[in-house]
Amino acid sequence: MAYQTIRQEYLQIPVVTRFYTTACVLTTAAVQLELITPFQLYFNPDLILRNSQVWRLITNFLFFGPVGFNFLFNMIFLYRYCRMLEEGSFRGRTADFVFMFLFGGLLMTIFGTFVNLVFLGQAFTIMLVYIWSRRNPNVRMNFFGLLNFQAPFLPWVLMGFSLLLGNSIIVDLLGIAVGHVYFFLEDVFPNQPGGGRWLKTPFFLKMLFDTPEEDANYNPLPEERPGGFAWGEGQRLGG
């Protein structure tokens, strides 16, 4: 009975969020069990180009370090904001969501080459948080019960939290920068005088991922609690 409940809850997670978070957890588990090592996963342009180790283009987004506070913190934020994007502004637009993943991943890979980052998963999480926060500007956030602010400030608060923990903020800045590029090209520039839509999802992705019918019994997560926990709890203004 418990297995059926867990399985049902797992299958209720939208497909892209389910696939990505599962891949991250399994990758970390494989490292913890010493089936693989981080040296086989990290981003290295020389090994990719000279030794054809193309899997590194993907695996560097899947490893968030050993199991601990940092890993759990990133997984919670990745799951929550990835899912809320997929069930919110990308509802019924799975192909567009996958294209956002590909676009963001490509930009991060290019920028990551110049700033010498070997794992880009955390930056990708910040990108998701940034895009969600800009598309939900009226949501009020509460961080650890200490700070109250509106959603667009969340990526910057997380960057400050990383700084307090002694982590490099280059990762956070990269995620914010890539998230802003996507948000500007997708949400801002098309609505400007003389603007246009530069980001167009390829037709083959729409053929693969978009379906004409939706499940009437599908129950998305409420966006009134965007953080899901005390450090990111929120509510909409006027609610």
TrEMBL record:
GO terms for biological process: ERAD pathway. Functional component of endoplasmic reticulum-associated degradation (ERAD) for misfolded lumenal proteins. May act by forming a channel that allows the retrotranslocation of misfolded proteins into the cytosol where they are ubiquitinated and degraded by the proteasome. It is a multi-pass membrane protein. It comes from the Eukaryota. Its main location: endoplasmic reticulum. InterPro entries: DER1, Rhomboid-like_sf. The chain crosses the membrane at residues 55-79, 100-133, 153-185. The lineage of its organism: Eukaryota, Metazoa, Chordata, Craniata, Vertebrata. GO terms for cellular component: endoplasmic reticulum membrane. This is Derlin. Keywords: Endoplasmic reticulum, Membrane, Transmembrane, Transmembrane helix. It comes from Triplophysa rosa. It is found in: Endoplasmic reticulum membrane. Belongs to the derlin family. The keyword Lipoprotein does not apply.
